Each structure stands twice: as C-alpha cells, then as structure tokens.
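Lab notebook, design round three. We kept the backbone fixed and only want residue identities now. Task for the bench partner: fill in a sequence for the structure below.
Input structure tokens:
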C-alpha cells in the first residue's frame, strides 16, 4: 500500500491540502492498528494491515513538511532528521516488539496497540503544532479537482505497481518464476507501467511525473534511479540476504543474536548520517558525498562477492562499511529529488522517489532469492551428501540429515550420525551457501556501478541552497514566491 500510494497521495496533497490529508491517513492507520490488535482471523489481520498501509502512504507528505518549512539551505538536514527519526523508531520498534511478543502467546497484539498509540499521538501533534502557511487554491469544479490529480496516471501506476509487487512477492517461494501466478501479473503489471510512462510523457505534462520535474536537467530521473538501486541493495542484500548469511554460515544460531550483530550496520548508518548532512549543508554539496558513499558500498559488494565461512569477525567490519555506504543515499537523495521539483510538486516527487525505492527493493529481493535458491538447488544436496557419506554416514540417512539441517533440530533421529560426520556435513553446507551468496552479491555490483555513474552526472544544487523558505510557518520569513515577486 505504501509503495503504490505514495506518489498518488503526494500528488493529492500538492493539489488539495497537506496537513489534514496526513491526519486523515494516520487516523485510518490508527483504525487499522486497532483492527489488527483485536483480529480473530488472518483475514482481519490482513484487513488491518491494509488500513495501516494507507497511513504509511503519507510518508511522501511527512518528508516534504520539514523540507518546505525550513530554509532551502537546510534541506539536507531536514531529510537527515527524517531518516534519524525513522531509524530510531525502527530500533525501538524491533526491540519493543520482541519484548512484548515474548510476554505471552498473545503478546504480538501489543505491537499493534503500541502502533495505535503512536498514530494517535502523531495526529494530535499535527493538529496542535503544525500550522502551515495559508495556500491560495484556484477555484475549480469537482471534476477539475479530480482531473488535476491525474486520475489516468494514478490508475495505471497503482494497477501496474500492485501487480508487479504481487508477482515479485510470490516468487519468494510460493510459486516458481514459470508459474502463471507470477508470469501473468508481472507481465500485465509491467505493461501497465510502460503505458503509465508513455501517458506521462506524451499524454499529460502536469501529471504524477510532471514535465517540470525535468526542467532543471536530469537530476530528478538520476536521483530516482539511484534511490531505486539503494532500495534494491537495502531490501534484498542488506535486509534479507545478510541475516541469511549470518545464519547459514554458522556465525549465529538465534534471531536475537543475528539482530544484535546487525546493530553494527544500523548504528553506523545512524552515526555517519549526522556528519554526512552537516558536511552537505556546510559546503552546499550533495553530489560528492553520494559518490563517496555509493563507492564504499561498491567495495562492500565486492567483498561479499568473495565471502567465505571463515569471515565471521570480518563481517562486522563489512556491516560498518555498509552502514557508511547507505548513510549518504538515505539522507541526501530525497533532498536532491526535492530540489529538482517546484514547490507545487514537492510531495509528488518525494512520493514517487519513495515508491521507486520500494519497487527496486521488490525486484532486488526476487532476483537475489532466485539466484540463491537456484544455486543451492544444484549444489547444496550434492555437497552435503558427498561430505557426509565420505565421513561414514549411510546413504539412506542423508535425506534425514538434510531435513534436520534445514529445521535446525532432529539430529538425534538421523541413524549413524555422530559429531564428526555432522561437522563435515555442516562445513560442506556452509561452503555451498557461501558460494550462493557470493553469486547473489556479485549480481548487485553492476547496478551499484551504474548508480555511481548516474550520481556523477547530477548537477550541483549549491545555487539553490539559500535562505528562501517555500512554506513558512513564520510570518516574517521570506517565501520563494515572495522572493520571485521582489526579483521581478
């Protein structure tokens, strides 16, 4: 819901109103949290999740508010603050959810009650503390308002993105790539997205992808592409594959220990994001910090492409480097997107970039899972079989051993298995998994290289980082519109 609706909701807020639209969405998210907390069936839980997703689609609005109420020279700081808030919220959420879940069998319900409380508090704070400057909206009929929101583009984008994400999620193990459940929605979804692109190019100049976003050069498409690559990296490699590496190479055996190890990535991302935005603000330079951080992540990809089961300690260092590598894109790319957009399209552009990141993540997860599963299908069983039988395990016990290794339990039920044979089989398993993960990380390298090339072609926005405020909450501040009037 968040991925699909972000640009649509952003467009709506640019046309109508930002404050009350965000409050309405977060109120829907509050209702969804309550529904999920009280759910008695999976259908009710899914329904609650959909409502929460409607609220999360307000992210395009939320990231636009600090950017428009602060002077343009502080736009990097505004987006950095947004990231820090989300990062700390993620840490607190993961630790808190783990705590309440362990309290009782129904402890998971408390997660949604906590969500409901936060959503309600946010609505209250927006209503009480956020008073944007009055905006003069043109007088339009209801039909004209609907048309100004680009209904054709919205339908094509929502339909295409929904089907593509659905198909890619189904490739995670539910269906094979060749299955019609994947091929049909993927083909139709991609077709709708192609039609969306053609329509936004030839059919309409002021839609979701307004032509004015390209008026200042190619910063907007290059930034969106780089953000999509960052989503590909984060959602697939960092968020999904890396924890699997830690588990399947035998470095950690519990989800808690894996989460603790991943803190070396999360904390480094948080800590290094602060000097990143301070440098960008002081020197009015958003381009070269991105070049440096993407280059660091390229080094991380190359290192993971050569990983072996003996790299347990070295992986902490890779986590830190990965955190540094992502501290730039997560704080500066949205600022570049917003600089490329006129104020009338700031939430639309922000929402579109966030959606591109999520769709990039969906593609990345599907591709990397396919690579890993395909490699393991042809290597894991033969390697374990050869190692176990060479160590003395009866051939008939190999299927039971493989099942026990996959479940992480039941080794005592495998006839003929002893600690020496298990050690040999585990070493072979670790070797097979390492080879699969090397191949997966290798597939990311070209995309990171393309992102670096794209960022190199981004024009510097130093001349835009001024004291102008686009939507002041202080009557004495100069707005961009007022500056333009004085210039004339």
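Proposed sequence:
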């Amino acid at each position: 819901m968040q991925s699909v609706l972000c640009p649509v909701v952003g467009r709506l807020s640019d046309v109508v109103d930002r404050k009350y639209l965000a409050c309405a969405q977060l109120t829907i998210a509050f209702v969804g949290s309550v529904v999920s907390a009280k759910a008695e069936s999976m259908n009710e839980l899914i329904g609650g999740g959909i409502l929460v997703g409607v609220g999360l689609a307000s992210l395009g609005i939320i990231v636009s508010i600090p950017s428009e109420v602060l002077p343009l020279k502080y736009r990097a700081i505004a987006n950095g603050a947004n990231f820090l808030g989300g990062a700390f919220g993620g840490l607190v959420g993961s630790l808190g959810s783990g705590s309440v879940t362990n309290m009782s069998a129904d402890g998971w319900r408390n997660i949604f009650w906590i969500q409901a409380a936060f959503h309600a508090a946010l609505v209250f704070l927006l209503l009480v503390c956020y008073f944007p400057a009055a905006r003069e909206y043109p007088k339009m009929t209801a039909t004209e308002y609907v048309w100004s929101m680009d209904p054709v583009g919205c339908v094509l984008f929502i339909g295409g993105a929904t089907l593509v994400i659905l198909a890619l999620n189904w490739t995670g193990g539910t269906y094979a790539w060749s299955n019609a459940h994947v091929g049909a929605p993927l083909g139709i979804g991609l077709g709708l997205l192609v039609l969306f692109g053609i329509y936004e190019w030839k059919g309409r100049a002021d839609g979701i992808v307004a032509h004015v976003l390209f008026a200042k050069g190619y910063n907007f498409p290059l930034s969106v592409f780089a953000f999509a690559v960052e989503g590909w990296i984060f959602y697939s490699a960092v968020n999904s594959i890396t924890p699997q590496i830690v588990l399947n190479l035998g470095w950690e055996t519990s989800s808690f220990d894996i989460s603790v190890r991943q803190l070396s990535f999360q904390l480094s991302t948080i800590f290094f994001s602060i000097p990143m935005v301070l440098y960008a603000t002081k020197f009015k330079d958003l381009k070269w910090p991105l070049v440096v951080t993407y280059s660091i992540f390229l080094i991380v990809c190359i290192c993971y492409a050569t990983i072996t089961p003996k790299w347990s300690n070295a992986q902490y260092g890779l986590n830190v480097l990965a955190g540094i590598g992502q501290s730039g894109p997560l704080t500066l790319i949205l600022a570049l997107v917003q600089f490329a957009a006129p104020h009338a399209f700031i939430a639309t552009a922000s929402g579109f970039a966030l959606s591109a990141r999520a769709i990039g993540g969906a593609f990345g997860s599907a591709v990397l899972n396919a690579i890993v599963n395909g490699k393991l299908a042809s290597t894991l069983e033969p390697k374990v079989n050869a190692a176990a039988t060479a160590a003395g395990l009866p051939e008939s016990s190999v299927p039971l051993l493989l099942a026990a290794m996959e479940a992480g339990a039941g080794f005592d039920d495998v006839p003929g298995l002893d600690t020496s044979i298990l050690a040999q089989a585990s070493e072979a398993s670790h070797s097979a998994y390492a080879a699969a993960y090397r191949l997966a990380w290798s597939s990311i390298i070209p995309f990171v290289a393309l992102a670096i090339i794209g960022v190199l072609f981004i024009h510097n926005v130093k001349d835009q980082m001024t004291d102008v405020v686009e939507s002041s909450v202080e009557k004495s501040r100069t707005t961009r519109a007022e500056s333009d009037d004085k210039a004339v």
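Keep this in mind before ordering anything: The CA atoms of residues 416 and 464 lie 72 Å apart.
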